[in-house]
């Protein structure tokens, strides 16, 4: 190879004879870059959503109309307590419902298992009915509050099937009161206030 043209009167790069064995040879495999140290990071598996982390009390399991077996848990979370239904280890996206006696038992278990502490514990102890009460809940219980400019309430409300639904309601101007059909997450004092009203039958 002597320059741009070879002895065969061709471009050297186009001549299959003169380019043979050189960097100009067509079809020569291109060296592959090493991938050492550039491996794609493997994503770590995430824990299943909704897994509980704090101390909790539970009652159940209960069988729903659709055949699901659920339990209701009261769990300490940052900022207060979460009450929710769980089925097959997964948090259910609806307002929990349970029997009157089961609701009271859930709060009693929360005290036994130290789910609540300090003043929160004392307020719940004072709100619970006496152990020998023939009827633990005399009616509905309400704890009013606010979310920004909107009014909201935690309600312990008897249902037609004899259960009590623990739900958070929000008042929206023009639409009225609307149930937030989801687990409740509120300060412990709100649960104690609603329970005290339900025990006395003096719902706000």
Account of the protein in words:
By secondary structure, the chain is an alpha+beta fold. It has one domain (56-200). Helices cover 18% and strands 31% of the residues. It has helices at 100-112, 118-127, 188-200; strands spanning 56-63, 69-77, 80-87, 90-91, 97-99, 141-147, 150-158, 163-172, 176-180, 184-186. Strands 1, 2, 3, 4 and 10 form a 5-stranded antiparallel β-sheet that branches. A hairpin with a 2-residue loop joins strand 2 (69-77) and strand 3 (80-87). Helix 2 (118-127) packs parallel to helix 3. The longest helix has 13 residues, at 100-112. It starts with 55 loop residues before the first strand and ends with a helix.
List the keywords.
alpha+beta, 3 helices, 204 residues, five-stranded antiparallel sheet
Average pLDDT for all residues: 83
Which residues form runs of ≥5 with pLDDT under 50?
A: 40-49
The gross shape turns out to be elongated
H/E order of the elements? EEEEEHHEEEEEH
Note the gap between the termini: 100 Å
- What is the number of helices? 3
State the share of residues found in helices, binned by percent.
10-25%
Total number of domains: 1
């Amino acid at each position: 190879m002597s320059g741009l043209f070879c002895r065969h009167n061709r471009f050297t790069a186009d001549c299959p004879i003169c380019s043979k064995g050189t960097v100009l040879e067509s079809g020569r495999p291109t060296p592959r870059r090493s991938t050492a140290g550039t491996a794609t990071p493997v994503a770590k598996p995430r824990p299943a959503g909704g897994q509980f982390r704090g101390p909790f009390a539970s009652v159940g399991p209960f069988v729903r109309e659709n055949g699901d077996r659920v339990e209701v848990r009261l769990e300490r979370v940052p900022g207060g307590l979460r009450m929710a239904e769980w089925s097959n280890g997964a948090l259910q996206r609806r307002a929990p419902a349970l029997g009157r006696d089961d609701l009271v038992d859930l709060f009693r278990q929360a005290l036994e298992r130290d789910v609540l502490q300090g003043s929160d514990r004392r307020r719940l102890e004072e709100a619970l009915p006496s152990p020998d009460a023939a009827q633990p809940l005399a009616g509905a219980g309400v704890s009013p509050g606010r979310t920004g400019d909107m009014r909201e309430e935690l309600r312990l409300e008897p249902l037609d099937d004899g259960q009590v639904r623990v739900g958070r309601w929000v008042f929206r101007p023009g639409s009225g009161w609307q149930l937030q059909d989801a687990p409740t997450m509120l300060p412990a004092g709100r649960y104690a206030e609603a329970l005290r009203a339900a025990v006395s039958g003096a719902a706000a």
